[in-house]
Structure formats: structure tokens, C-alpha cells
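Input/output pair, single chain:
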Amino acid sequence: MTTPTTISTTTAAAPASLRLENLGRRIGDRAILDGVNLAVAPGECLALLGPSGCGKSTVLRLIAGLDAPDAGRILLDGDDITERPPARRQVAMVFQSYALYPHLSVARNLSLGMEVRGVPRGERDREVATVLQLLQLAEMGQRRPAELSGGQRQRVALARALLRRPRVFLLDEPMSNLDAQLREELRPQLRAILCGGSAPVVYVTHDQQEAMGIADRIAVLQDGRVQQCGTPQELYQAPANLIVAGFIGRPQINLLPQPDGTVLGLRPEHLVAVTEGGLPVRVLSREWHGASQQLLVASPQGELRWTCAGNLSIGAELRLGWAREHEHRFVQTTGQRC
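Output:
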């Protein structure tokens, strides 16, 4: 399937920037969001990444106007929209569920919203044809949702959002219902579509590979707070604290408590076999991952994960070392980077 490289003029909207200032949301005594500050530039995709219950979807609901914050402001191009009703925010949201009308054709699902807005039929037909071509669904217009694959239904849901000409795109786990292979196939297409326009995009996911493959920047949330916001490379190469270090990267980073009270973080792929020095280890288990294998090894400092290209058997004994520039050090009591 060919990856689209540009976005249709169908989705043209005035360039906008989105800013969240000190957003707070509480339910009883529980803080769902606590002082969230984020900014998204026109045409930028910001992914909100974190475990279930960290506040990701709440951020989307506040931006969309489906919920109200207890503190803070939401600004669109400097205009405070915090108390503006959803219908007046020019925001389009794509949910986990496709929410398509099962008894209507794909084309009718897409044109219905424009019909309600009073768009003339000729213009509706042209816009639907354009967006179907963009998303490589040109032959699917007369089919019903049940006749489409999961990936095709997801693209129809995205097409419907595009046709609204929004100033902000919000996506809430849009590929969670798809299998792993299909998610991987759709990632470059989704990125090309979302990042080809002028609207800021906020993309919620708990899948770090998805976030790193689609987003320009990632904000890691935990307990309603932004732990770190930066490019995928920044978060991987310089995690701000133990929460980010443990959440970004698969297999997970190795964390070794040190005598001086710090914690040493080592990425599995940065460990190497050495002939002198290093840590003595013994292979406990292994998994093949194509050209590499993921090993679990026992060491005097505990079990470590190691990614290598060799062919080691379970029970093999050797020594592992690493380059100093690959060390990540954190203060054990606070979790912050040293």
C-alpha cells in the first residue's frame, strides 16, 4: 500500500497553535490532572504517552469540551476556549471505536455531517471523493462498514474527521482495536496524513512504538503530571527520571542500585561482551527477534536484559561491559536524573 505524502486541500484550515496552561482536574480527593502545561504548534503531532489512568484521555476530553477543568486554561491561537461549548471549538476527535453507521455506505457515513451543515450535494460528493482517494479507499465508497477490514474502518473514521476541516485533531487510541501487524503498516500512513496539514494534533496512546513512530514530540504522563516532554530521541537518550526511563524503550532499561545511592540505567542494546572487567553473567533465557536475540542474564547485581546478535545458549557464562557515554544515572530517593 502506497504511503500518502501530502494532505488534501479538503482539510485546509487556518494554522493554529494549541496551549494548555496549568490544567487541573479532580474527582473528589483524587487529582486526575495536576498542573499540566503543554503546547502544540501548527502541523505538529504531540503524543500523550503513559499507563492506563495517568490522565491522557482526560486531557483530550478537556480540549474537546467534553469535560471541564477545575483549574487552568485551554488556548487556541491565544484565544481562551476553556468554557466554549464543543460545537464551537473546531476540534475533530477520532475515538477507539469507529462509531460508523452500520446501515450506511462509507460515502454516506462521510457526507452526512456535511449535509447537516448545509453543504451543497455537488461539493459534498467532490470532498468525499477527494478524501477517499487520499486515504486509498476510492473503491470502497459504496461498501458498508461490515464489509471493510479493521484498518479500512479506522481510515474511514479518520476521513470523517478530516472532512470537518478542524483546527485541532484529537486521536484517542485510534489503533488499539487493530492487530500489531496492521498497526505497524498504518503508522507511516497515519503520520503522513496527520503531519501533512496545518492543524495541531494530540495523539493519545499507551503504545510507545506507536508514539515514537508517529509523533514529533512525546509527553509522558504519570499520576496526572507531565514527567517529560520532548522528541522521541530526547526521551530515549536522556530520560528526565526513572519513570520516563522505565517507560520508554523495549526491552525495558536495566536499573542497577549503586553504593553511592544513585541508580545506574543501562539500555539492553548497550551491553557488550568483554574479555576483561565488566560483570560476570549467566544466560537464564532467550527469545529470538529476527536478527537479534533478547537475553535474560543473572549477574551479581541482579537480572539484566541484554539485546545482542550472537547465538548464545542457556547456561552460557561470560562478562558484560558498557561504554561510559551510555550510562544513565538517577538519584534513588527522587528518581530524577543526576
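The domain at 254-331 is CATH 2.40.50.140 (OB fold (Dihydrolipoamide Acetyltransferase, E2P)). The helical segments are 56-64, 106-116, 121-134, 150-162, 180-194, 208-214, 232-237, 242-247.
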